[in-house]
Amino acid sequence: MRTSHFLKGAFVAVALLGIPLVGSVVAQRPGLAQQPAQPPMAPAESPMNVSDTQIEQFAAAYADIQAIQQQVQPEITEAVEAEGLAVEEFEAIMAAQQSPEAEAQVTPEQSQQFTAAYERVTEIQTAARTDMQAAIQEEGLTVEEFEQILAMAQQDPTLAERINNHLAEE
Q1: Looking at residues 116-127, what average pLDDT do you find?
Q2: Buried-exposed string 1-10: b where 16+ CB fall within 10 A, e elsewhere
Q3: Measured between alpha carbons, how far is 153 from 88 in angstroms, rounded to an integer?
Q4: pLDDT by residue (tens digit) across 45-87?
Q5: In angstroms, rounded to a whole number, what is the distance separating the alpha carbons of residues 155 and 161?
Q6: Residue pLDDT, tens place only, 147-169
Q7: Cβ-contact 16, 125 below 8 angstroms
Q8: Which of 167, 170, 136 lies closest to 18, judged by CA?
Q9: Could you tell me how far CA 146 lies from the centroid of its own chain?
Q10: φ/ψ of residue 81, rounded to 5
Q11: What DSSP line would sit under 25-82, residue for residue?
């Protein structure tokens, strides 16, 4: 369903914008878990009415963010693999560091590879986050407005449909 695809992609975009950890970009590979994003605002907290102009701005920013994500995904994979780790190994080590329940047996060599890959991926992600924020602002929205429209679309199927209709026209 297109609505689901839109919301999932936008949810990942917000995660990348708001979370300084690497997993939100690497997690976009099929089969890997995604980092949670900030919880959406309840409708009562966001009285903003979304105009057609804002929907156009949001959709354009969303398309720009998707293009940035598509560019960044292979760069991150290459950065991880250049250090001698598979993306799956990188994710397992990341999960073990972030959660006491996750277990990963890491050799000293893998630990060094992970550290080097993490540094490279963090640089890529930081640059991508900056590019995404700039893309949103170039379309005439603030990052906060973008996130608020996204949160509202997650709560309001009519708004999500209006956004999807605009995306389909592009």
Answers
A1: 95
A2: eeeeebbebb
A3: 32
A4: 444 689 999 999 999 999 999 999 999 999 999 999 999 999 9
A5: 12
A6: 999 999 999 999 999 999 988 88
A7: yes
A8: 136
A9: 13
A10: -70, -30
A11: HHTTSTTSPPPP-PPPPPGGG------HHHHHHHHHHHHHHHHHHHHHHHHHHHHHHH
What radius of gyration do the chain's Cα atoms show?
Answer: 17
Q: Are 58 and 48 in contact (CB under 8 A)?
A: no
| CA separation, residue 135 to residues 10, 79, 167 (Å) | 14, 24, 16
Beta-carbon contacts of 9 under 8 Å, excluding residues fewer than 6 positions away, are 62, 66, 69
Q: How many residues does the chain have?
A: 170
C-alpha angle 121-140-132 in degrees, rounded to nearest 5 = 5
Quick check: pTM over 0.90?
A: no
